[in-house]
Amino acid sequence: MFEYDGGVSSGPTILHADLDAFYASVEQLLDPALRGRPIAVGGSARGGVVLAASYEAKAHGVQGGMPGWTAARLCPTLIFVRGHFEQYQRLADQVMDILGDFTPAVQRISIDEAFLDVSGSTHLFGPPAAIGARLRRRVREEVGLPISVGAARTKHLAKVASQVAKPDGLVVVEPGDELRFLDPLPVGLMWGVGPVAERKLANLGIHTIGDLARTPTPALERLLGHAVGAKLNALALNDDPRRVATSPRARSVGAQSALGRRRPTPELVRAVLGHLAERIASRLRAKGRAGRTVTVRVRLAGMRSVTRSATLSAPIATTLTLTEVAERLVWQAIREQDESVVEISLLAISVSNLTTQSVIQLELPLEPEDPHRPGSATGVARLALDSSMDAARGRFGRDAVGYLPATLRRSGGAPDEFRELAERDL
User: Fold this and answer.
1) d(CA 395, CA 401)
2) 388: closest CA among 315, 270, 275, 285?
3) Calpha distance 19→168 (Å, rounded)
4) Looking at residue 43, which CATH number applies to its domain?
């Protein structure tokens, strides 16, 4: 991790650049007939899940994540389109290249948004407002997509400013105007305030960021927990010391799946974890990487989460091994709860402690067989099978072959291609 120090500045030299309605905007770029019309990426009027919506569709209440039939009811003229997943990464990477032309300090936090520290670039390109306007113009002219930019002294405020700037705008918050700018804004714009926290705050009469800033920290800590309450109070006062950081390689790779509220059964847990492990392990193998530490997260009813992790003797990148390790950890976490009332709403896996794995050292049969060791007979066989499936998918498509539980799990919800665009790359 590299923290950029382009010179200390009290000005609005941190920018947050966020592509507007990215997936829908790409579809409108690829098909000019869709421009200015309400579209939904994914789903259909008969069902499925809307993955993203254009601003024209959002004006009718259509949102990503809602059922297709609900979206069609809200907007009878809605046009459903299939996603061009192969184009999303290409176009987003072009945008990131443009951002890199203005500063080496670019911290990409998702496929379609990034922070920039331009404190070392103002002598070349002018003040932050001019830089924001210039990069917006280049993205529009060279890529064809709208992008909103917020500029401020802190990362949190820059991100809030970019949300206020949407769609397709630029907002610069000068240091003397920070609290006045934040005060009337809805608390839901804050980084880290999701629907659950927003409802809890509303029940306490906290609706704006100014309300939050004026609420004593102990009251927030009692409502949201010590860490979250203190953090949100600090952010509401624009107290955010985080710097723009760049990292040449991710330190972990993970995936998660929301389940609603379900009783955990062996079949459900195996299917979900197998699906997640397949997504993670295939990405590891594609980059010649493997990891030693496996962490699972289980979200229980009431939004309470528990995590468990294990560090293995050797790094792994095989789907079955990752599935088995994750299963053991998940059941460990579940069995520690009150089994008469336990329900789960989300499962997640991440693999960290990463290393390059270009070859596997075969083991002599001197120790008891352990399928979790990559060099064991079973470990080598598993890698050979995964590598063969990777090759088949590369030639015939993702659905050409797979493990049965994971393949069945793929049949519903968002396509894996869409999920993986939102997941951290290596």
Assistant:
1) 11
2) 285
3) 8
4) 3.40.1170.60
Instruction: Give the chain's length.
Output: 426
Q: pLDDT for 200-255, tens place per residue?
A: 899 999 999 999 999 999 998 888 888 888 899 999 999 999 999 876 556 788 88
Q: Does 211 lie in the same domain as 356?
A: no
Q: Name the residue range of residue 72's domain.
A: 22-85
Domain CATH number, residue 309: 3.30.1490.100
Q: Is the confidence at residue 3, as pLDDT, over 70?
A: no
Kind plus residue range of the DSSP H or E element containing 361: none
Q: 150 has which bridge partners? A: 16, 171
Query: Total structural domains in the chain?
Result: 3
pLDDT in tens, 381-409: 888 888 898 888 888 777 778 787 666 65
**C-alpha closest to that of 27 among 164, 129, 145:** 145
Strand-pairing partners, residue 17, are 114, 149
CB 178 within 8 A of CB 130: no
Q: Which two tokens stand for residue 125?
A: 């390109």
CA distances from residue 161 to 29, 190, 380 in whole angstroms, order as listed: 25, 10, 51
Provide the whole-model pTM: 0.71
The half-sphere exposure of 101 on its side-chain side, counting CA atoms within 13 A, is 14
Question: How much of the chain is in helix, strand and coil states, percent to nearest 5?
Answer: 45, 20, 35
* Whether pLDDT at 6 is above 50: no
Taking each helix axis from N to C end, the angle separating 226-236 and 217-224, rounded to the nearest 10 degrees, works out to: 130
Residues 214 and 300 in one domain: no
Give yes or no: residues 81 and 201 share one domain: no
Using a 10 angstrom Cβ sphere, with 0-12 exposed, 13-18 middle and 19 or more buried, the burial of residue 256 is middle
User: CA 369 → CA 266, 292, 320, distances in Å?
Assistant: 25, 19, 16
| Catalytic annotation, residues | 113
Structure tokens at 79: 């046009």
- Please indicate whether residue 4 or residue 320 has the higher confidence score (pLDDT): 320
